[in-house]
Every structure is written in C-alpha cells, then in structure tokens.
Design goal:
With 105 residues, this protein is an all-alpha fold. It has one domain. 80% of the residues lie in helices and 0% in strands.
Amino acid sequence: MTAWLTLLAAGLLEVGFAASLKPSEGFTRLGPSVAVVVFGVAAVVVLTRALESVPVATAYAVFTAIGTLGTTAVAAVAFDESLTPLKVVSLVLVLAGVAGLRATG
C-alpha cells in the first residue's frame, strides 16, 4: 500500500512538473523554471522509491497516467484549454489501460 501511495505522490509531482512548463515561458521566467526542475527531479526520485515494490512497467504506466489526467485537468482549469468529448474518451481509455495493467500486475 505504501508503494502505491508513493507512486501517487510521484504522479502528482509529475503534474506539478508539467503544469510549470507553460508558465516558465521557455525557461525565461525564473520561478516557474525552478519549479519545472524541482518538480521534475522530485517526481523521478519518488517514482524510483515506488519501483522498490511495484513492477516498472506498471509503475511507469500509472505514473504517466496520473501525469496525463492531472495535467489535462490543470490545463483545462488554469490555462483554459479545451476539454472536448474526444479528449474525455481518450482519458477514459488511458484509465482503462492502467487498470488493465494493474489487474494483471
């Protein structure tokens, strides 16, 4: 259970990493640029901890799914990016794929 909470934390750090990219404006703004590096490094370090107990293929799929879903939500709210029906269906498919990997793992 602890490994899965660690993996969740890594995924949330990944969301912070991805969400910081746009405000960094190509690494021309210091604060968001520092956030990109801090969140990115922290996400990988925490992911590595989860790999002590979770198979790498499953862990990476869950990690990227959390990043994808979370970043899509942040982008829709904070950056006013569209959330079309096709995007929603695609996100559901991402979740289904991760659930399938988890069920077999």
